[in-house]
Amino acid sequence: MVNYTVGQLAYLKIFFHAAKHPHLQVNGVLLGKKVSGTVEIVDAVPLLHHWTSLSPMMEIGLDLAGKHAESLELQLVGYYQASERLDDTALAPVGEKVASKVKEGFADAVAFVIDGEKIGSDDVALIPFIAQSPSSSSWWPYAEPGSPAPFTPGSLFSLSSPDIPARAVALVRDQQLQRKFGDFDDHLENVTIDWLRNSAAMPSDIQQ
Amino acid sequence: MSASFGSALHSLANYRAHNTRASQEVLEKGKLLLNSNAASKLGDDAWAFLEQLALAAIDVAKYDVADECIRQLAAKFPESPRVDVLTGIRMEATQPPQIVLKFYEELLEADSSNAAIYKRQISVLIRTGKIEQAVLKLSEYLDTFYSDVEGWVELAELYSSCNQYTFATQALSHALLLAPQNPFYVLQFAETAYSADDIPLAAKMFMLAIDIVDRHTSDESIPTGVSIRAWYGVKLCCRVLSERSCSSASETPLPRNLNLLDELATERVLTAYSAGGTDNATGRELVSSWMGPSDRSGTRLHFVH
């Protein structure tokens, strides 16, 4: 199995998306590339927070995000979602569908479900899901008997830097950066919203 | 002091009128008013304000503020069904679901006409993941309270979340009977029909949504909001219809002049991106290339259900 690292830009965007709509389901895609056996998840593009079970705008957003990834010399490498319920850490049926589609273009695709219980803490609030077989559309939480839990030392899943979750919490709590964050749904209501880059919501030290 | 009170009151009234869920802001503005006992100066609005503040406080877990509001409301309106609902919502925040459900059952036995309590019951079932029960209860509720449009929309969303898109469109068709001029419901119907793989029906409904919006605006206007979504939807349908043969469970005929419709949809969406010389419209080139006829490379993703 390959390793996965999640970079700061990607984590912050997922976090802000969930933080902006705490009472709604949100989803989006992950952008990255495979470098010597490691999938580097570098960026994320937020899609929907409204009618998240319906497909047309999701398909269009996915297409556009894919083209945007190409322009950055990246690929679509995964999917993320956050549920409206804290205790719901399952991957929704629509999530399995999207993740499977992404997997057709990138064999090592991964899906992350946000862990609502951990999102306010310094812990990594992401639960990885992996497809059960190359052709399966059934995704299960990653669990290898005897392996460390995801995002703990020695696991296949890691962050590019351990202080990212704490930084994410601080940016929401102190600077409310998530209020400047926009997804595809927002963009459809106002085309000036830069859902692909979201530069306005990112702290100034992060390179896009 | 009075200037900021005035503007706070104005914002709060605005939020009430639009049913906005801006709980953090409502709490910040409302706490000031609550502490200065401005409620006594608000006249009849005081009670709507206290209810609004209680709901906002519960939303952001400031239960002491909520309890104070409910205390005042209960004192003024003893045995009020509306206060019962608020009390129930407050319970939902901190009590186990079975206790709250029992509370609601008892209230309904005493008064079976309290629609809001039925809906609280259903929302507790949804929140605890009991979707099948929620769907059953909601369907029963709608048998009695047929004209509750939001109820039909909620039922549709529950069905959609379980991939039951056809049942969802049936629920939405009731919403459309009750509110035929609402473009959002038409748009939701269109998107649901698409998800149910009834592409001709989706195309027809996307165009109906546009039609309803256009009736209220001038001809050459720039598409915004609902229209942009709907024109994107039309474009997507045209593309799918030209790429594969689609059957329609509702036996909706294919749109005539598919090529012309495709061109029109393309033009309308791109207009939204070029309007008024907006260099601010982001991703315009990306959208343009997505729209282009040369993009039939098959890398486009489509879900087949």
From TrEMBL, chain A:
InterPro entries for the chain: EMC8/9, MPN
Domain MPN positions: 4-135
One Pfam short name: UPF0172
Family: Belongs to the EMC8/EMC9 family.
Name of the protein described by the UniProt record: MPN domain-containing protein
UniProtKB/TrEMBL annotation, chain B:
Recorded coiled-coil stretches: none
PROSITE patterns: TPR
Domain of life: Eukaryota
Keyword Repeat: yes
Cell location: Endoplasmic reticulum membrane
Keyword vocabulary terms for this entry: Endoplasmic reticulum, Membrane, Repeat, TPR repeat
Topological category with respect to the lipid bilayer: Peripheral membrane protein
Gene3D superfamilies: Tetratricopeptide repeat domain (1.25.40.10)
SUPFAM superfamilies on file: TPR-like
TPR repeat ranges, renumbered to this chain: 149-182
Domain EMC2 TPR-like: 103-193
Membership in a protein family: Belongs to the EMC2 family.
Function: Part of the endoplasmic reticulum membrane protein complex (EMC) that enables the energy-independent insertion into endoplasmic reticulum membranes of newly synthesized membrane proteins.
Quaternary organization: Component of the ER membrane protein complex (EMC).
Designated name of the protein: ER membrane protein complex subunit 2
